[in-house]
Amino acid sequence: MMTAPERNSGTVAEQGTPHGARRRATVLLAAMLAVLLIVPTLFGRASAVEPFDQSAVERLGSAAPAIVFLGNSLLETRIDPGYMNELAGVRSASLAVDGAGPGTWYLQLKNVIGGSLNRPRTVFIFFHDDLITRPISFTGPQDNALTERLSKGTEAEYRLVVSNAETLGDRIRRGFATIYPLANAPSSDPNSVSSAGAFIAGLSRDEARDEFDRVFEFANLRTQGSDIQQPKFHGTFDSTVEKSFLPLLVEMADELSIELILVRVSARPRDDGTPNEPDSLAEYTSNLSGYLAINGARYIDMTGHPDIDPGMYYDGYHLINRYRSFYTEIFSELLFPDRGANP
Amino acid sequence: MTFQSFEYAALLVVVFAVYWFLPRLAQNALLLIASYVFYAYVDPRLALLLGGYTIVNYLAARAIDSDRDHARRYLVLAVLASLGALGFFKYTGFFVDSMATALDVIGLASFDSTLKIILPVGISFYTFQSLGYVIDVYTHRTHARRDFVNTALFISFFPQLVAGPIERAANLLPQFEQSRKFRPDQTASGLSLLTWGLFKKLVIADNVGVIVDRVFSTSEPGAAMLWVGVFAFGIQILADFSGYTDIARGSARLLGIELSLNFRHPWLASSPTDFWRRWHITLSTWLRDYVYIPLGGNRSGRRRTAINIVITFMLGGLWHGAAWNFVIWGLFHAGLILLWRSGSLLGSRFAMPVSTALTFVLLAAGWLLFRESDLAFVGENLSQIRDLQLAVALGATALLYSLPIWLHAIVDQPRFAAYWNRTDVSRTIGLTAVTLTSFIGILLLRADVSAEFIYFRF
Fold first, then answer.
1. Tell me, what's the ipTM?
2. A203's torsion region: left (phi>0), alpha (psi -120 to 50) or beta?
3. Distances (CA, A) of B408 to A3, A265, B202, B417, B423
């Protein structure tokens, strides 16, 4: 590799190359730029936009759940839909997607749930902090392929929210990702390096991941949760709601005659068990609750729930896997106090 | 604005596109505007601080040059102003906390220190760079510039503003004062260096940083895991800081400006002294020229030399951060250098590969002091062995990520470099291969989240 060719890097004193050599250098630079700009565009390009995934609609239709949960990994670490069926005797299904945000939930509600012949009676959306009014589709890297599989047609209303919220950096990033589709791919390939490292140690990828989760689980961390992941707040409710997907979610649920219930999961409480959230977030929550009440949706705030203990948390938000069933029981009791954890 | 952001890419592309169509004076004005946009992007108040530094040091240098009878007075004022600002923003909390602890220990008084002062990014770097200019004017190494724009640009030039290299007036100012012509070979080289730097940051440093953060945030990692964390941190900090420097030097080269070399394969250092000729070269030469040599260097006997080394490295440690672990880290390096200089115990008696390996291991131990401020935590964990298999897996992962840096260290040796550089075609093929590989590597292997550059906090 000759990334830093110090000897030939050229200084101001070296300027003034002969005309022929300069022209040759220009041609070489142009050739280099052409290769650099064009070759990476050839990788990772899908032949066409991914079509809408009708099989997701059919799966949901055949399951015919009365309750559907939407959310991301926070939902996955909290609710076991199979166990919920056992506890409450109500058929439920989870459409959780790791890293999903409100834009993805809107497309799921509109096209997957809305497209099903057996629509559920109730849809729960699990979110944290003020995520529900952030105009984003993913909390982490953008998964454009999933967005395409959830979209029907141009999705004008969805696109409007996305484009209204774009910063200069977002626009450049989107343009870049259009030219270089590899930039869109979730960065799963670093896992291949981790897998190779695990292989050297005589572990399979799954064994290594389990070991990693065990050794570095939240209970083993030096700094407690309140320092690791502070609750996030991105602006007052009034200043963010109209630019978000929330009005679309509420309208869509109304249009589909589905009861919409938003569930705010709590960040890891402080060690003394008190809720860990700033006053601004408490005010936001109050405004959100009022907005939902006016617009015919319901709201459940799990913050401060007496049975939720800081020791149940893997990090600032996710629960340790073994507490998933317990949380499902808590939630079931909350929804169906007459059936609860004792079906 | 950080180097790995799309906003920076946009800034650089716009500046590059306009810059080469402008005459020299307009080029410098454009660079100055871009530098202040770059610095003020996150917090506009920072531009005022940078402007203050510029005005103070510009006036001080002019006063020193024009009034030699009172030059010392102006120098002292400039040094006090610059170090005063640095001390206020960077060290006030440290000294107040240390004083509170000391008073508490001896039972004289106790107070709760909750002083919170924001640390302007890059302040340590531009303080040293502007101080170097004024000292150089005082010692006749260079002359004070009348042109305010050039002086302001010297202090604020955006590629190296927030994390170096710490430039000398004699290298950078003449480049701003001469006309620059677009040179295709320089552009190709700059682009390659910039992309390689981004690869080091986004792929190596950010992925290995995940392992480091996990290990050092665990209450009882045990000895094996702790050493893996230290080893991984050695990889992370080199990839992070040298990656930053490569992006800085590559960006500057695209604009026809050559910044100083800051890293020369430090893992190949054969002794602690050699390490400091390869690691953060512009800081170590700054400390050598403005601290160690003025203290007397090695001209006043062995004992005095040892004291000078200790003082220089202690200040070098403190420059990195306002915490005792950095002071101890500096003293640790001073101790290693003195040990090697003694020659009887280590160093010269070993063959080069053994000395290089020993240096690597000892420097890794030094990184433990650099990364971890709670030394009791280190002591408690060094006596426990657990989770060995996972430690090996994480260590192997970190090592695999570092392979491109090792490969670079090998093929950058003169015999390989000469092979690639023998014709302009072979050179372009080599640059294209490196740049293309780095670019595709970034797209495929980048970490989900890119952390702030480590040296931003200094």
1. 0.72
2. beta
3. 8, 48, 17, 11, 20
Instruction: For residue B110, give both structure tokens.
Output: 């106790």
Tell me how far apart the alpha carbons of residues B195 and B208 are, in angstroms, rounded to a whole number: 19
Measured between alpha carbons, how far is B240 from B200 in angstroms, rounded to an integer? 7
Q: Looking at the partner chain, which of A6, A39, A140 has a beta carbon nearest the beta carbon of B261?
A: A6
Nearest CB to A3 within list B408, B421, B428? B408
Cβ-based contacts under 8 A for chains A and B: 208
Could you tell me which of B160, B140, B113 has the C-alpha nearest to residue B261?
A: B160
Q: Are B207 and A190 in contact (CB under 8 A)?
A: yes
Rounded (5°) CA angle A27-A30-A36: 145
Query: Do residues A298 and A263 touch, judged by C-beta distance below 8 A?
Result: no
CA distance B146 to B131: 17
Instruction: Tell me phi and psi for residue A84, to 5 degrees.
Output: -60, -40
8 Å CB contact between B456 and B163? yes
Residues 6+ apart with CB under 8 A from A331: A78, A79, A84
Put simply, the answer to whether B390 touches A190 (Cβ < 8 Å) is no
Task: Flag if B445 and A5 touch (Cβ within 8 Å).
Answer: no
pLDDT in tens, B403-435: 999 888 888 888 888 888 888 888 888 889 889
As beta bridge partners, residue A319 has A313
Q: Cβ contact (<8 Å) for B249 and A11?
A: no
Q: What is the pLDDT of residues A129-177, one digit of tens each?
A: 999 999 999 887 777 888 999 999 889 999 999 888 888 777 888 888 8
Helix/strand/coil for A262: strand
Mean of the per-residue pLDDT values of chain B: 87
Enumerate the β-bridge partners of residue A265: A128
Distances in Å between the Cα of A157 and the Cα atoms of A207, A241, A245, A248, B269 are 44, 15, 9, 8, 60
Known active-site residue B320: yes
Q: How far apart are CA A174 and CA A16, in angstroms?
A: 40
Distance CA A116, CA A234 (A): 34
Q: What predicted TM-score, i.e. pTM, was given to this entire model?
A: 0.78
Q: What domains appear along chain A, each with residue ranges and CATH number?
A: 54-188+224-335 (3.40.50.1110)
